[in-house]
Amino acid sequence: MHYLKKTLADNEEIIQFFHFNKITYTFSFLYIIFGILLIIVGLIPSFDGLGAGKLLNVLWIPALTSGILLSLYGIYSYLSLKTIHMGITDRRVVLKRGIISIISDEIRLEAVETVEMKQSIIQRMFGIGNIVITGKGESNICFKNIDNPVGIKKVISSALNNKN
User: Fold this and answer.
1) CA–CA gap between residue 82 and residue 109 (Å, rounded)
2) Pair (102, 156) in one structural domain
3) Residue 152 structural domain
4) CA pair distance 10, 12, nearest whole angstrom
5) pLDDT by residue (tens digit) across 69-105?
6) 133 is a domain residue
7) In the sheet that 103-108 helps form, which strands lie side by side, from edge to edge?
8) What's the DSSP call for residue 99?
9) Is 121 a member of any domain?
10) Residues 145 and 109 in one domain
11) Can you tell me the distance from the alpha carbon of 110 to that of 104, in angstroms, rounded to the nearest whole number?
């Protein structure tokens, strides 16, 4: 169940969940693919087809080790992205992250001072961006690489206007 649904107060309603663009998962999958390729290279200690058998006999342990570590890192980064829950209710903005330990950042709508959208050139090409919400004091929440940042900023601004 989504973290935001589990933590709703009485009479609190979810306005919208925020999601990552599919391109955000690309690096995780690339790590896994390259890791699997290195594992395959590491498992073939002698490849006589190109006469490179002696070289691969020496490099099979580093290739296998690197492949396993790279694949594990790819799986970890994918799971890290999948366990991030982001959204807005009629009372607060929420960002929850963590696989084993959980970190939850929340700012009540009354405490929001600014809503900023930041996009690099690459992020604009893929339709992703960062939204930074600053609250009173030193609190802030940054939603990184979310899909449709302009629309998300409008949803947050609209919720703030309805709250006031």
Assistant:
1) 25
2) yes
3) 92-163
4) 5
5) 999 999 999 999 999 999 999 999 999 999 889 999 9
6) yes
7) 14-18, 85-89, 92-97, 103-108
8) S
9) yes
10) yes
11) 18
Structure token digits, residue 30: 């690339």
Counting Cβ atoms within 10 Å, is residue 41 exposed (0-12), middle (13-18) or buried (19+)? middle
The answer, as to whether pTM is greater than 0.70, is yes
Whether residue 63 is predicted with pLDDT greater than 80 in this model: the reply is: yes
Q: Are residues 75 and 97 in the same domain?
A: no
Is the distance from CB of 70 to CB of 30 less than 8 angstroms? no
- Percent of the chain's residues with pLDDT above 70: 90
Angle, vertex CA 61, rays to CA 58 and CA 66, nearest 5:
125
- For residue 49, pLDDT beyond 80: no
Distance CA 44, CA 32 (A): 19
- Dist CA 131 CA 148 (whole Å): 10
Tally of structural domains, the chain: 2
Same domain, 73 and 96: no
